[in-house]
Amino acid sequence: xxxxxxxxxxxxxxxxxxxxxxxxxxxxxxxxxxxxxxxxxxxxxxxxxxxxxxxxxxxxxxxxxxxxxxxxxxxxxxxxxxxxxxxxxxxxxxxxxxxxxxxxxxxxxxxxxxxxxxxxxxxxxxxxxxxxxxxxxxxxxxxxxxxxxxxxxxxxxxxxxxxxxxxxxxxxxxxxxxxxxxxxxxxxxxxxxxxxxxxxxxxxxxxxxxxxxxxxxxxxxxxxxxxxxxxxxxxxxxxxxxxxxxxxxxxxxxxxxxxxxxxxxxxxxxxxxxxxxxxxxxxxxxxxxxxxxxxxxxxxxxxxxxxxxxxxxxxxxxxxxxxxxxxxxxxxxxxxxxxxxxxxxxxxxxxxxxxxxxxxxxxxxxxxxxxxxxxxxxxxxxxxxxxxxxxxxxxxxxxxxxxxxxxxxxxxxxxxxxxxxxxxxxxxxxxxxxxxxxxxxxxxxxxxxxxxxx
Length: 454
Hints:
- The protein is built from 14 helices and 15 strands.
- It has 454 residues and is an alpha+beta fold.
- A four-stranded antiparallel beta sheet has the order 1-2-3-4.
């Protein structure tokens, strides 16, 4: 890639200039070593003296210390500074890997190869390296021809699929906040870029229709609204696991997609730790943009009024819930949801919020609870399309099957509150399952499928 290219500053370094500087620098691998440091992790120190298993080193601040030989790590020659593939390092150790990643990160280079892997370090800001123009630069290129990028990994998977006629899989893993969700979206965007038919896309836009590629990309805002939440480490943490298949036809064009999900964090529906939030959709629906639905959804615009969603934070720094709700609403349109499906989805969501406000009390000297007012139960019943009396009865005196018969079982206050929480979590889980199935229905085209990348 040409170093004069404006996109190059976020993608690579001028190796020729670096090698020229390396040639001018004097270096002796036996005279320096990496030493563990509490603040920096590892720092370079000068080797002063070696005596048996003990080595005396001089640190940058002028202090000397004696360290066991086994605790020192060797320093790579300057020519390996900010190398694109860490598998090429002469000395492959913890310090060398961390220093290489750190040096590249400070130069706004967030992607680095390590053999078959592509390591991404989250910059917590938007870099202009995911545009259509950048994607086209990686299309059809060998890995060694371009700087490290997720697009290169995606392109290799795509071309291996076509060349080997085999399904491919891209594994995106990391700790919370590492960037799994964002990188997954970038992979999907890349396949949409490289397989899109410009002429067909122009016709669809003229006819005011959404392309399949657009629908695959727009599935994300809906699933993020219902499946992501703020945690102490991440403002947009996916609280479920997912496996996305992008299906391709015989010519290599996208022929559909489907999503499988695992282990939705249902406990978050009714309780959140300090500094965290419930799922984004609750706060989006109660935002200013969501006011257009509030009369039908029987909610107020203040999330602080509702027990199930006010236990942690109510807002996220730098995130406008009204704007996010607008994007979710637009994505629902693009995915082809009917207005009835949209309102049913929202009603089930706000019924969960109202469930947390249902009040019960213990009857004196009895092992039986009773409703403390029916207003909130009537709201929940209306939103779910059930009878309010039957709903309360199911909490207070549920029917239990014993043998071949059903008997009525009395519930105390603790049991009733537990039942309300259980219903809220179960309802939200089934709602999310329906949502994923509905998204899959939209992405299921009748085009012949040959391979997939997962």
